[in-house]
Amino acid sequence: MRAAGIEVVGLHGRRAADGPLAITAGPFPAALATAAVILVAVRDEQLAAALGELPAAALAPAAVVLHASGSLDPRQALDRLRDAGHPTGTFHPLVPLADPTRAAALLREGWVGVDGDPAAVRVAETLAARLGAHVLAIPADGRAAYHAAAVIASNFPTVLAALAVRLMQHAGVAPASARDAVRQLMAAAVANLASAAPHSALVGPVSRGDAQTIALHLDALAADADLLAVYVALSRAALPLAADQGVDPAALARIRALLDVSSSR
Questions:
Q1: 105 and 55 Cβ atoms separated by less than 8 Å
Q2: Range(s) for CATH 1.10.1040 in the chain?
Q3: Which residues pair with 64 in a beta bridge?
Q4: pTM of the predicted structure, to 2 decimals
Q5: CA 89 to chain centre
Q6: Are 256 and 239 in contact (CB under 8 A)?
Q7: Which of 81, 167, 218, 250 is 20 to 30 A from 229 (CA-CA)?
């Protein structure tokens, strides 16, 4: 935010720290009363309690309170802030912030989910624009589904990479080669999505209607229940994409039958 020219008057957390990004801890600092916007970024299970502390604090009149949770919207705590004259809303970065050194770069051209009171949404959109990010409106009645989609997109590729590396190593590939090969393969698959819809970017045996190869895969995975379950579930999910590609329906039916038999064992 500072690099984007946004004035940050304070950073408050669990542990105090000195330095260019000084952090206060304990009682709220006096700087809180000078903030036009307060962004609450805590774990979801701590969100209601953290928001609940703010009405008793010395906040600037009409200060906007945003929180960074994509899945929760604790109404009781937010209503107390609204009753005290503070517009509230969501500023949810759709960015996998695993590495702090890369976070700012990932936010640029990333996406931020926003919702809330009109004044809070305007502030959230302004912050996102200053950071170089795009915004999308979190669906009012689809918050859980929205967040589940974000989890599928940002968390599950890591899980799939771990499974693919494990399987390659089990097949006899050296660990370092397995990690590098899987990482490059996944990066190339994601790069294909930059210029094509998912059904157009899909490759592999399902997109070819290749039941014979899938049968070999199912046999190879039969001893690993977790890997087999993932393979079957994702292959099933790939069937409609292959149908959109125009793959022979009879070939897709043979694949579905193989998957059904495998999952019923």
A1: no
A2: 156-263
A3: 37
A4: 0.89
A5: 19
A6: yes
A7: 250
